[in-house]
Specification:
The structure is a single chain. By secondary structure, the protein is α/β, with parallel strands linked by helices. It has one domain: Carbon-nitrogen hydrolase (Nitrilase/N-carbamoyl-D-aminoacid amidohydrolase, 4-Layer Sandwich). 26% of the residues lie in helices and 26% in strands. It contains six helices and 14 strands. The strands form three sheets. The protein has a six-stranded mixed beta sheet. α2 links the parallel β3 and β4.
Length: 286
């Protein structure tokens, strides 16, 4: 099976209304639609741009205010998914559930369904400064173009959780990210390559670019989109199907062939998924 994916290097800048946000989102989605993409990925925390709107009194909004935009966010992306017939991974958005805030990735289906995956591993900033709570369950999601998982930024740095996603049937990991410097960016990027090699899967990742001067912890962003493959003969030697220009406002698009994954798992130069030593270390059990 073949499919086409797009990933957005979302440019963060100060806005004055939700309408401005929706027009920027529409620009990226229409671009992916013109490329006939099946999936489009937005970055982690890109909806923090809404906090730059501020209050009527000119005061800055905080992360505690972000869930107030949830209904508008869900409606906007769900409508775009239905209109364009694309699967939209709407980056992540902060949801309030009970007394806790969660950093949640969303999959918007072309038929109007909405699926969620809370971030499972939280960074010190998310815990100490934003008081977010971690998710407790990993899901994989069936689509007409294959089975996917959504693992956000720091999640991709943990090999165990990606192995579970693969064991549950995921062939593509969509990894929205948000990193503020080169160190964080390269942690996510290098481990994305490792996960692709270990599990013989595709990893699609992207990050925020630009700056939000009035939003705490979003003043610096260092991002680049990439579609990452296993390192084997049917794929590019460096394991990069496509990548963007670092810190530029842009969208990248690439074609993925799931049959190539099945081929290398069966008879590749190495067969890392098949050759794991479950007699020496535990594997995920259904």
């Amino acid at each position: 099976m073949k499919l086409r994916v797009s990933a957005v290097q979302y440019h963060l800048h100060t806005i004055s209304s939700f309408e401005e946000f929706s027009k920027q989102v529409e620009h990226y989605i229409k671009t992916a639609q013109e490329f006939d993409s099946d999936f489009i990925l937005f970055p982690e925390f890109f909806t923090t741009q809404l906090l730059s709107i501020g209050t009527k009194q000119g005061n800055p909004l905080t992360i505690q205010n972000l869930p107030d935009f949830t209904e508008q966010y869900l409606s906007l992306f769900s409508n775009f998914a239905v209109q364009t017939k694309m699967h939209i991974i709407g980056g992540t958005h902060v949801l309030r559930k009970g007394e806790h805030l969660y950093n949640v990735a969303h999959l918007f289906y072309p038929d109007g369904r909405i699926a969620e995956q809370s971030k499972l591993h939280l960074t010190p900033t998310e815990i100490k400064e934003w008081k977010l709570a971690p998710g407790e369950k990993l899901e994989v999601f069936e689509t007409e173009k294959g089975t996917i998982a959504m693992l956000t930024c720091y999640d991709i740095e943990f090999p165990e959780i990606v192995r579970i996603a693969k064991a549950k049937g995921a062939d593509i990991i969509f990894s929205p990210s948000c990193t503020d410097d080169r160190h964080g960016f390269h942690r996510v990027r290098y481990t994305s390559h490792a996960r692709a090699i270990e599990n013989q899967i595709y990893v699609v990742t992207t990050g925020t670019v630009g700056s939000l001067p009035t939003v705490d912890f979003m003043r610096a962003n260092f991002g680049q989109a990439a579609v990452i493959t296993p390192n084997d003969i049917p794929f590019p030697p460096r394991g990069i199907q496509v990548e963007g220009e670092i810190n530029q406002d842009m969208i990248v698009t690439a074609d993925l062939d799931l049959d190539l994954l099945y081929q290398v798992r069966d008879s590749g130069s190495v067969t890392t998924w098949r050759d794991r030593r479950t007699d020496l270390y535990p594997d995920w059990l259904p």
